């Protein structure tokens, strides 16, 4: 794509102009993207990588640290994760929708932006769009006169919260989906409405999901045209995931990488060259190493493409009443925080409004606990002089005096990423009982790195940068004592009929004799170890029998929606309980092959 080259030239100019007025020695920076010259040596590549910097929007985005996702839509009312587009819009009928309640609660919990699923894969639009009847305008809510996007936008304006939109490219309702030019225009029209009628939009989130399968409709997206629409209408917005400003971390579990390079070899998926570059480098968005010297050696270009960790506070992305007792524990949320914000990423935490149109009490309470804990843990910085800028070459150390001898168990390090990401490895020692003791080591720092370790009583800290690219610019070193947290969430039970009495009567399709006649209310598919595998079940039929001969298919959604990205247990509640002694799950993979499901991945609720 030509635009990155255009952008680089312009951006480079901006970078040198910005420095002209300063007394600083003029430095070369590359904004957002850099091409390595042919035959570049490792030393040259490392030098250029160290000078790659974010755009002003990317920098501002990174500084937000905490952003919130709101998955809300027709699925909220059908109890599904992915709707199929055939849902009756009349089902959308929140009884007490209050966008101010959402924003207030999020603001008080430290979130700086909210992103709403203006349209999910089911195609149902939360604003009264001109492009389709499949929207709030056809719902009972406010007699079809409501506009969720507007209500949220107004609440954001009132509470000084940034605002973003999620618009699913995959649309299971639009009749023109698959007729590529027509759908692309339809999508641009939707995007245009959202980016024109609701004031400033700070993030546009396009996900890459598509569950159409080999025989489904094939849509070729015009990413270039989508990109131009955003650039024209909201030039300050960052474009995420299927976009080139913000990168998907690679999982939906809230797990960042310990080594996280914002200066990465991973090309954004919207570039036409992306697949071939990824193939040549042997990487994907899920690879553990996206920026080390090893991968730089093979790469021809580098992107400032920082990671965003998206995860839901509940098992599902949408609200399901039966998950009210599965809101992630404070300990789990703090682990996610350390592994996202503390691993050089932005955390995008999903809090799905319920059928009333409110953030449920259980989530509100957890958000409050999350905020309180962070305030307590990070209120008292024990380092006295940590903000003195430190330009450090490999092997340089600096000592920091603590406010007296104190218990310490977290150290915070920050690089001034406006001057690039440069730290490759560091270690931290603490002065304990008059001697230096190692408390931990790490690799990348980037915008922020939080290092946790067992508490020590220390009077000083010594930070050593073991390896850097050029000289690193450390702008903040802090230390804290964060009270340890215990896990309060017990494991979710998704099977209440002991498996000892079960017998597998056929492996394919998986057929099970439950050992006795039961009244079956629900069944669960729980991929082993919560891991996504290509052989896992996606589409299925579920049948029951009382004698193992006569089977009847039970009406269910027939799809373990989003299981490949979020492989948590999926419980399917039957429309009405059925008598069964035998159950059969006939399942296909996302590639429409026979899926492999084993008996320990199945649970029943009787
Ligand atoms: C995925 C979607 O398929 C999920 O439903 C959810 O919206 C998540 C954030 O992105 O790809």
Describe this structure in words.
With 606 residues, this protein is α/β, with parallel strands linked by helices. The protein has 3 domains: 57-262 and 306-377, Glycosidases (TIM Barrel); 390-480, Sandwich (Jelly Rolls), CATH 2.60.120; 499-605, Galactose-binding domain-like (Jelly Rolls, Sandwich). It has 12 helices and 25 strands. The protein has helices at residues 2-20, 42-50, 56-64, 74-78, 99-108, 148-159, 180-196, 223-233, 274-281, 293-298, 330-338, 361-379; strands at 30-31, 33-35, 52-53, 66-70, 113-119, 162-167, 203-206, 238-241, 247-248, 263-264, 301-304, 307-312, 345-350, 390-392, 397-415, 423-432, 435-442, 449-468, 472-480, 503-506, 510-525, 539-545, 552-554, 570-588, 602-605. The protein has an 8-stranded parallel β-sheet with strand order 8-7-6-5-4-13-12-9. Strand 20 (503-506) and strand 21 form a beta hairpin. The longest helix is centred in the N-terminal third of the chain and has 19 residues, at 2-20. It starts with a helix and ends with a strand. Residues 1-11 and 13-24 have low confidence and may be disordered. Residues 81-82, 207, 209, 310, 317, 562, 565 line the site of beta-L-fucopyranose. Beta-L-fucopyranose is lined by residues 81-82, 207, 209, 310, 317, 562, 565.
Total domains: 3
Looking at the structure, the CATH topology of the largest domain is TIM Barrel
Shape: globular
Considering the protein shown, what is the CATH homologous superfamily of the largest domain? Glycosidases
The first-to-last residue Cα distance is 56 Å
Oligomeric assembly: single chain
User: Which class best fits the helix and strand makeup?
Assistant: alpha/beta
Q: Mind describing the biggest β-sheet?
A: 8 strands, parallel
Q: Major sheet: order of its strands?
A: 8-7-6-5-4-13-12-9
Rounded radius of gyration (Å): 26 Å
